[in-house]
Amino acid sequence: MFNKLLMLLLTFSAGFLRTQAQVSAPPIPTPEREFRAAWVASVANINWPSKPSLTTQQQQDEAIALLDILKKNNFNAVIFQIRPQADALYRSNLEPWSYFLTGVQGQAPKPYYDPLEFWIDAAHERGLELHVWLNPYRAHHVSGGQPSELSVVKKHPDLVYKLKQGYWWLDPSKKGTQDLSADVVKDIVKRYDIDGVHFDDYFYPYAEYNGGADFPDSASYAEYQQNGGKLAVGDWRRDHVNTFIKRVYKIIKSEKKYVKFGISPFGIWRPGFPESIKGFDQYDKLYADAKLWLNEGWVDYFMPQLYWQINNIPQSFPVLLGWWQSENTKQRHLWPGMNSGIGGGDKNSDEIINQIMITRGILPKSPGAAHWSIAALLTHESLRRDLLKGPYKNEALVPASPWLDDDKPLSPVVETENREADLYIKWKPANKKDDFKYIVYTNYGGKWSYTILNYKSRFLQIPKVLFADAAKLIKQDLQSIAVTAIDRTGNESEIKIEQVL
Predict the structure, then answer these.
(1) Amino acid 9: pLDDT
(2) pTM over cut 0.90
(3) For residue 123, with 0-12 CB atoms within 10 Å meaning exposed, 13-18 middle and 19 or more buried, which class applies?
(4) Which of 131, 191, 346, 421 is least surrounded, with the fewest CB atoms within 10 Å of its CB?
(5) Which secondary-structure segment (H or E) carries 326?
(6) How far is CA 16 from CA 4, 8, 124, 417, in A?
(7) Would you say 265 and 304 are in contact if contact means Cβ atoms under 8 Å apart?
(8) What is the pLDDT of residues 173-223, one digit of tens each?
């Protein structure tokens, strides 16, 4: 009887001490959240591929080098242009292979591969989201060679106009234009494992593309009026763009709700909004009512191109960002585009880092920014260095999108094995399709830290002891661990702490 009482007492004491240890353990840190992206432009071979005559291996080597730069510098997303001129940097039954890949529109890479598929796999292996960047209305670029028989210019001449600078442009008011571009978006979202769809600032073309003359859609507008249309030409044009943006958002969500839709419009909505702002009027010139899209929540992230310096009063970065945030009535992600090659050298680094810190101050719940373009990171070593030792010192998760999904993913099933001086942590996903990243938390000597791993990761081997000084005099024992899953919209599973020692 005495022995049974003693065993019960010892069991109770051990459980009490273990509970007390858990209660007194320091809190697990919350991983940093910030969207960190760079644009990779394919039009005119601006960023990738560097020229249209590269071999498949050369194209892939260049792609890996760019993605490695982003991974090394703690970025977590890439915005990759795959439809520069109503053509495709991927296998498509709707549009021809891009001239900027092979130098011949309609010709696939040899040896064959699918560049988009390659970029997606390589980005995800590095823990990067991949957002496909499409131009909805540009039919042919002046640097895009001769339009092939497969080009929309030849296949659907009723949908396009040739502008005075040599560009061909789809007519946004035509049903055929809207149907084609919407079908392209749907096809990509359905077939590829992408994380976002992205449009930039090209809606109706800038006036200089047509020598300063008005967009040549007078016949379309006359037909609209003959059918009883009452809108002024500017409102009529904006209405077609608005209808298309709303349609695209619905299409994406009907296919894959977690795929984010983002737009990067010109940074000024209209001069005088706010009062100190002067400059180009996209509402009146590009027929882009970007404020409406943000107000209505037809985007998951909004990325105005704020390519000006902080102290440039007529187009001040923080003044414009603050105004856009005041219009963010649906609380979507507001991640500005920055001109990261604005000056080069230390002055450039200071400007960009200050802009990043301003975004964190104005947008504390969902900070983030995109860098135009990845070339700035390649060219300016000082910028890479200063980002990495400054605001991008630590890895960060992309902020969650609760309006898309706020359900926590299931926690992975975790096992551990003692391996002499190390602990081998392995896990199985509870829902493989839902998991996009994993976080391994470790508690050494009462201090927690974390490591972010990609969707393919299933194990991590860590030492049981760390030393806080070079002489190995201050020892920190591994006390506890936890492994969580991050889903496609950024939600984290429950944290289940496992005691090690």
Answers:
(1) 43
(2) yes
(3) buried
(4) 421
(5) helix 317-326
(6) 18, 12, 44, 26
(7) yes
(8) 999 999 999 999 999 999 999 999 999 999 999 999 999 999 999 999 999
